[in-house]
Amino acid sequence: MIFTTTATVEGREIDRYLGIVFGDAVLGVNVFKDLLGGLRDLVGGRSGTYERELGAARDAALSNLTEQARAAGADAVVGIDIDYEVLGSNNGMLMVSASGTAVVLKPLAGAGVGSPWAQR
């Protein structure tokens, strides 16, 4: 599966557009992590706690997007966009949403049956 933020896949031609696919993840930031993040905010520097949470949420959203694209029969997802939001009372929840267009790519030229390049 190929993923790109661009509208095309370099060196490949899109055969069919299957539609928009999404992946969302909502994670809660608990009181302990909030406290550690708040301390980092006071003294400055990067907050490893929040960076890990952002990474986990992004990975979950992209994983969900991948599952949806595979279920649709896609070879690639183009035009991927990732958005971040905070939700809930006191902004205690982090939402990451990933979306893109699932597509089927045309086979590579010269990729005959039995060739490893014939595979999607």
What does this structure look like?
This protein has 120 residues and is of the alpha+beta class. The protein has two helices and four strands, in the order ββααββ. The chain has helices at 31-43, 48-72, and strands at residues 2-3, 14-28, 76-87, 93-105. A four-stranded mixed sheet has the order 1-3-4-2. A hairpin with a 5-residue loop joins strand 3 and strand 4 (93-105). The protein starts with a strand and ends in a 15-residue tail after the last strand. Residues 115-120 have low confidence and may be disordered.
What is shown here, in short?
The chain is an alpha+beta fold. The chain has two helices and four strands, in the order E-E-H-H-E-E.
Instruction: State the helicity in percent bands.
Output: 25-40%
Q: Which spans have pLDDT < 50 for at least 5 consecutive residues?
A: 115-120
Radius of gyration: 19 Å
Distance between the termini: 8 Å
Sheet of most strands: 4 strands, mixed
Inertia-based shape: elongated
The proportion of residues in beta strands is: 35-45%
- The oligomeric status of these chains comes to single chain
What is the ordering of alpha helices and beta strands?
EEHHEE
Number of strands: 4
Strand order of the largest sheet: 1-3-4-2
Number of helices: 2
Mean pLDDT: 82
